[in-house]
Amino acid sequence: MTSKQDDILLKAGTGLEGGVVASGSTCGVVTGGALGLGLMYDDELKKKGDCAEVALLSMVGDYVRWFEQNYKTSLCRKRTGINFYTLGGQVRYLIPDKVLRCLNHIRGAVKNLHTTVYSRPLVSNSISDPHAVHCARDVLRGIREQTGTGYPLLERTSVVFDGGLGFQGQICGALAGAIMGINLSLGLDIRKMNYLQTLDVFLFGHLALLKKKPANKKETFAVGKEIVKRFKDESKALECRDITGRSFAGWNDFQGYIKTSEKCHSLMKLMIKEASNVVQSE
After folding, report:
1. Looking at the whole model, is its pTM more than 0.90?
2. Radius of gyration of the chain (CA)
3. Measured in whole angstroms, how far is the alpha carbon of residue 169 from the centre of its chain?
4. How far apart are CA 196 and CA 201, in angstroms?
5. By the 8 A CB rule, do 224 and 279 touch?
6. By the number of CB atoms within 10 A of the CB, which of 55, 121, 122, 150 ranks highest?
7. Can you spell out the DSSP letters for 98-150?
8. Rounded Cα gap, residues 32 and 9, in angstroms
9. For residue range 19-53, what is the model confidence (pLDDT) as tens digits?
């Protein structure tokens, strides 16, 4: 679909499966598609900054709404009815009807993204705000400043998580930023792995989800599960709409809220701290 291929961005997205480390929140097809849009329009992001970001967020919002209209919900827990943190749930997921449904949704999402990219240019807005706050980006930036581990492309494209993916109230950007930040170190470099290696980490990762205490603090899903738990203990929810108790009409509405939200800033600081501790222990 595009000449751009970025394995580091793909690696950072490792923990987005199953609704962010299999927690049942926003489907990885939705978050992955949003990041894909960010990658495809990265040239505009570099040249035009927040003017392009506003247009990209609008496009991401349309993608999320399309997904929900076609597949009823964007939440993994509702789409699959699966609890990946139980053995029964994992076994149930491997039954063909569940897996095939996800594959079908991937197919539909890619077709939609293809149509979007080749039929809809990114029309930049005139908004310019040098003091704009971005949930995932600010967490990723904080991790980089504390640990030295970061990736400019990931920081730019992570703007798609504002307001829970294009202001749609999905997974909190602060949590998504922390998970992507640790996976710059712990994530899976899929293109360099053969089939057996992929199968091994798949099985080991899913077993880690079942354990009450992580046996391997350097395994991406074991670590990610603990970060999700720490976040939920503090926020009582994973989705932006539930954390904030509201929806956002667009860029100005979101910026007006997040710049003054003590709760959002507290969660962002928590995620920077938790993720930085993980990265520094490497």
Report:
1. yes
2. 18
3. 13
4. 9
5. no
6. 55
7. HHHHHHHHHHHHHHHHHHHHHH------S---TT---HHHHHHHHHHHHHS--
8. 10
9. 999 999 999 999 999 999 999 999 999 998 888 99
